[in-house]
Amino acid sequence: MSAVISPVGNANVVHESEAQRQYARLKLPAKVRFQGQQGGVQEVQLLDLSAGGFSFEQGGQSVIEGKLYRGKLMFEVEGIGFAMDVEFQVRSIIGGKRVGCEFHNLRPREVSALRYLISSFVSGELVNVGGLISILQRENFTKARGGKGNEQLSLVGRLRAMGLTLVILVAGLSAFAYVLYQFYDIYFVTHADSAQVSVPGSQVAMPREGTVQSLVTVGSTVSKGAPVATFTANMLDALKGALPESEMTPDNLERLFNKTFQGTLTSPCDCKVVSQLVGDGQVAPKGTPVFLLAPVDSVATVEARFPYRAFSQLQPGTPVTFLVGGEATERGGRIVSMALQDGGLASDIRVQIQPNEPLASNLAKRPVEVRIRPLNGVFVNNSLASEK
Q: What is the mean pLDDT of the chain?
């Protein structure tokens, strides 16, 4: 090749309006070789070159406007010839001679090399082989900005990015809030070791060993003296200790052993049946509680057990929150009494909690989770003040 690239003055820059050309055209010493219309190979000197295309003056073989051609763009740097495979389209033919062409489907490396040559030429820097080879060995090409279509895609991309950022932000805030709540719950909230719903009432127990058959259902109300269950016991067990020695013959004992009798369990008060502790048909020893009954006018409370180190927070009137097992909503209440169990400093403290709202008696013996939260009293006092 005979074309040698060397920086020259601004006279080689072809200035046109932005509406006429998208890229600045430079008069660079370069050639293009391509296969012409009649099958022959044409090699022509370029009149100008830009990152978007080039122009040349056609010779004997004419080209067709709008047709795509493939060829090689050739130039020389420091005595070494370089050729790039290019695809171009004839966009205009002026005066039958000057042919304007536009590059098509240039690979990133070729685009980078062209930009390096043109920018070096314009700035007056010396183009060297090492710099050009370095450009061809790396991928430093970025796509050009498009028109409205790309702007719309860019807008969609920005919206997606904003949505993803929002999701990550919400997830991060949720995780932070959860960790913060756990920290607060562990280090600032006092928890009861155990607690349950307590209903003052009476138990109906077996007078002797036997099987049980209930006459009432849990939740029903019974009057004082009304039967709540029947029991079947062994006659021998009932007469044990009452038989004289003369009647304690083997035959008599066997006869009594095979006999049974039936008795009735009655309610000690006008009560509500809270729970049945022995199932129908089961054998219960003497003294075993069968029913738990609560007076109809009784009020359910919560009994809780706290460690001794929580003594300073367990004063009467202290507000608490508690969650009854099986329920999803927390309730509020206040400590009404406290007592230190036997055992000295190693013992626990038993407290009685009065709920703010009445508890159903059928919740008796239900496990409860009790918490004492800092500032709980402030919120309660504020709510009471607002109600007044």
A: 80
Residue 337: is its pLDDT beyond 60?
yes
State pLDDT tens for residues 297-315.
888 899 999 988 888 888 8
What amino acid occupies position 319? P
Same domain, 95 and 80: yes
21 shares its domain with 112: yes
Please determine, for residue 70, whether its predicted confidence score (pLDDT) is greater than 60: yes
Share of the chain above pLDDT 90, in %: 32
The DSSP result for 18-62, as a single string, is TTT-SS-EE----EEEEE-TTS-EEEEEEEEE-SSEEEEE--SS-
Give the HSE-up count for residue 123: Cα atoms under 13 Å, Cβ half-sphere: 9
Task: Please check whether residue 248 lies inside any domain of the structure.
Answer: yes
Does residue 192 contact residue 369 with C-beta atoms inside 8 Å? yes
For residue 193, CA distances in Å to 63, 88, 373 come to 95, 84, 15
Quick check: is 152 in a domain? Answer: no
In terms of phi and psi (left: phi > 0; alpha: psi -120 to 50; beta: otherwise), the region of 342 is beta
Does 5 reside within a domain? Answer: no
State the DSSP code for 174: H
Q: Which domain holds residue 58?
A: 10-137
